[in-house]
Amino acid sequence: MQNMNYGVIGNGQSAALVSENGTIEWCCLPAFDSPSVFAQLLDRDRGGKFGLRMKGRKAHYHQEYLPRTNILTTTYTQGDDAFEIIDFMPRYPERSDTICPPDVIRLVRHLSGSPKMTVDYDPRLGYAQAETTIENTVDYIKAHCRKPNYESVYLYSDFNHKDILAAKQIAITGEHFFLLSYNQKVDDPCLDSVLLSFERTKVYWMNWVDRTQKFQRWNQTIERSLLVLKLLAFQGTGAVLAAITTSLPEEIGGVRNWDYRFCWLRDASMVIKVFTQMGHYRVGSRYLNFILDVIPYKDENVQIMYGIHRQKRLKEETLDWLSGYENSSPVRVGNAAYKQKQHDIYGFVLDTIYQRLIDHPESLENVEQIWTVVRTLVRHVQNQWKKPDAGIWEIRGDKKHFVFSKVLCWVAVDRAIKISEFIGQVSNLEHWTALRDEIYTQVISKGWNEDIQSFTQAYGDTHMDASNLLMEHYGMVDANDPKYIATVNRCYDELCNNGLMFRYRNNDDFGEPHSAFTVCTFWMIKSLHRIGRKKLAAEMFEDVLQHTNHLGLLSEDMEFKKRRLLGNFPQGYSHLALIDTALALSE
Question: Same domain, yes or no, for 98 and 202?
Answer without folding.
Answer: yes
